[in-house]
Design brief:
alpha+beta; Phage tail protein beta-alpha-beta fold; three-stranded mixed sheet; globular
Length: 383
């Protein structure tokens, strides 16, 4: 096969245009050392595009799904491995996981519907509930772009899948709360221009205008922040009665779901100070603090940023997670309940799965490593 012929097959593979015979020819040729540099360059470009762009729902599902390889190790702990090292392994993963028929079928797949069929559940989507100062609740995912409310001089705008506050000449401070139920995520631009992204089953309470000495907000669940800097007015995130994060201008992620063993704060850029149980812990970029239930603080010097930010980038990252933690994430994103028939299997997971897959597609991945699941209504039963 010539280089030109291989490039044509590679382009066809990227765009899901190969016939069965062409796909088999591509996989055979991809193992040829003559094309090693070509595939390496293309893999690097593809991964960069996946991280940087917001792909169409079905396209991202295909690409991420093709990057997952389920395998059972020789040890009692079973693992999902992500294949990252070459385009040949990426291509082979599609065949290993989905089969040639599934690969060919995916080329014509449409975006997911609310219920794909009676035994399937669609993934979460954009949506939230806004509670205004007077207690009125507004369901944001049922509205079009435009002004949602006027809060004592602050215009509340819904635009392109996010909420924004324009304080204007506001001289009174009232509080709003944005809540994402299970199966929803949403973002809000706060009155100072700072941004907050809420994962499923989370909330943020904030003033409609920052007119005091600081910029206070209160959160539950998981929220990623990008804060506009102000040397005279610190931004403060209150998690509970014992934990507060103080920032001047930075980007960071806070995970504080009820029932979690720790409250995790991870700094991506800038600097923050964590106040917890009469302790003050400064953070540098790449570090994470874990506040335990007894108030103790553990500092992680080299946090796994890719794993921590996976939810915002449209992925589940199950790196080194237990089955119970994986199921917690599925419960929140698919708005389901998980029930175990017997003791949960002692399984560790490695790898990434797209958050735009239907629940049945995730279940198929689990079955590849011996985790048997069935869907009954909105209950996932693990056997």
């Amino acid at each position: 096969m010539t280089q030109e012929q291989f490039i044509q097959l590679l382009e066809g593979f990227n765009h899901r245009r190969l016939s069965e015979d062409e796909l088999l020819s591509f996989l055979k040729a991809a193992d040829d050392p003559r094309f090693e540099s070509l595939i390496g360059e293309r893999l690097h470009m593809e991964l960069a595009q996946m991280k940087a762009s917001s792909m169409a729902e079905g396209e991202r599902a295909d690409k991420v799904w093709g990057n997952i390889h389920a395998a059972v190790s020789a040890h009692p702990v079973r693992r999902i491995h992500v294949l990252r090292t070459a385009w040949f392994r990426y291509a082979a993963a599609v065949i290993i996981i989905s089969g040639i028929g599934a690969y060919l079928w995916s080329s014509g797949r449409k975006q997911h519907q609310e219920l794909v069929h009676n035994t399937d559940i669609a993934p979460g989507r954009l949506g939230a509930i806004l509670t205004l100062a007077d207690g009125t609740q507004v369901k944001l995912d049922s509205l079009g772009n435009g002004v949602v409310a006027d809060q004592k001089g602050t215009k509340v705008l819904l635009k392109d899948g996010g909420l924004a506050y324009n304080a204007g000449n506001a001289n009174a401070m009232t509080y709003n709360t944005m809540t994402t139920p299970k199966g929803r995520q949403f973002s809000v631009q706060l009155p100072d221009g700072s941004r907050a992204w809420l994962n499923a089953a989370s909330s943020i309470t904030f003033p409609t205008a920052f007119i005091g000495e600081d910029r206070p907000v209160t959160i539950t669940g998981e929220v990623y922040f990008e804060i506009v800097g102000s040397p005279t007015k610190p931004f403060k995130v209150k998690v509970n009665d014992k934990t507060e994060i103080e920032v001047l201008g930075t980007s960071f992620n806070v995970k504080a779901y009820p029932g979690d063993a720790t409250i995790n704060t991870t700094l991506l850029a800038g600097a923050v100070r964590l106040h917890a149980s009469n302790h003050v812990q400064p953070l540098k970029p790449g570090e994470q603090t874990q506040v335990k239930q007894d108030g103790g603080i553990q500092l992680i010097k080299n946090a796994d940023i890719q794993k921590i930010m996976a939810w915002k980038n449209g992925l589940f990252n199950f790196q080194d997670e237990s089955l119970e933690e994986v199921m917690k994430q599925l419960e929140r994103w698919y708005d389901i309940q998980v029930r175990y028939d017997g003791d949960p299997p002692k399984t560790k997971f490695f790898g990434e799965v797209g958050r735009d897959l239907t629940l049945s597609q995730v279940i198929e991945t689990l079955r590849e490593i011996g985790i048997q699941c069935t869907i009954e209504g909105r209950t996932l039963i693990v056997r």
